[in-house]
């Protein structure tokens, strides 16, 4: 089986910590793939809030964001009670969206996972793709 490779950027501009809860675990006793995406979403929401936005669904007027693609590569298990540090970096930015990269490590500084989400801005009132709001674009340009 060919493995997906994901090279992370050198510069991470945001970090937060989240604790693994029992509801994050799957039948194998570790964080399941669906819950890793949820932890990444939680970190992404906190990232947007750190930039002054209420949430990822309230960027500007009726403009929000949708995740067009997601990649998660697992490096180690995340277990109940682990404190995960989730770092976020900004990748390619274009008129309609951008990439966010995630590095997830545990309290022992062991890499648990890395990820990438392709973000596309979306105007929910018009039900179509929208340009990245200027305020967000400016902040992301500084971060890149």
Mind describing the biggest β-sheet? 6 strands, antiparallel
Helix content, binned percent? 10-25%
How far apart, in Å, are the first and last alpha carbons?
33 Å
Order of helices and strands: EHEEEEEH
* CATH level 3 topology: Thiol Ester Dehydrase, Chain A
Amount of beta strand:
35-45%
Count of alpha/pi helices: 2
**What do the pLDDT scores average to?**
94
Q: What count of structural domains?
A: 1
CATH class: Alpha Beta
Helix and strand content put the structural class at alpha+beta
Which overall shape is indicated by the principal axes computed on the Cα atoms? globular
- State the CATH architecture: Roll
Ranges with pLDDT <50 over ≥5 residues? none
Structure, explained:
The chain has 2 helices and 6 strands, in the order E-H-E-E-E-E-E-H. The chain is an alpha+beta fold and 144 residues long. It has one domain (14-143): Hotdog Thioesterase (Thiol Ester Dehydrase, Chain A), CATH 3.10.129. Strands 1, 2, 3, 4, 5 and 6 form a 6-stranded antiparallel beta sheet that branches. Strand 3 (83-93) and strand 4 form a beta hairpin. The longest helix has 18 residues, at 33-50. The mean pLDDT is 94.
């Amino acid at each position: 089986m060919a493995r997906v490779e994901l090279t992370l950027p050198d510069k991470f501009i945001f970090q937060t910590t989240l604790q693994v809860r029992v509801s994050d675990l799957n039948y194998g006793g570790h964080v399941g793939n669906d819950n890793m995406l949820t932890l990444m979403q939680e970190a992404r929401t906190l990232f947007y809030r750190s930039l002054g936005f209420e949430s990822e669904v309230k960027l500007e007027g009726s403009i929000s964001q949708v995740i067009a693609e997601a990649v998660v590569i697992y490096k180690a298990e995340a277990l109940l009670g682990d404190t995960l540090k989730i770092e976020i970096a900004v990748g390619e930015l274009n008129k309609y969206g951008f990439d966010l990269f995630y590095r997830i490590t545990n309290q022992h500084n062991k890499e648990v996972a890395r990820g990438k989400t392709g973000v596309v801005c979306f105007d929910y009132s018009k039900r179509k793709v929208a340009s990245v709001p200027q305020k967000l674009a400016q902040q992301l340009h500084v971060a890149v």
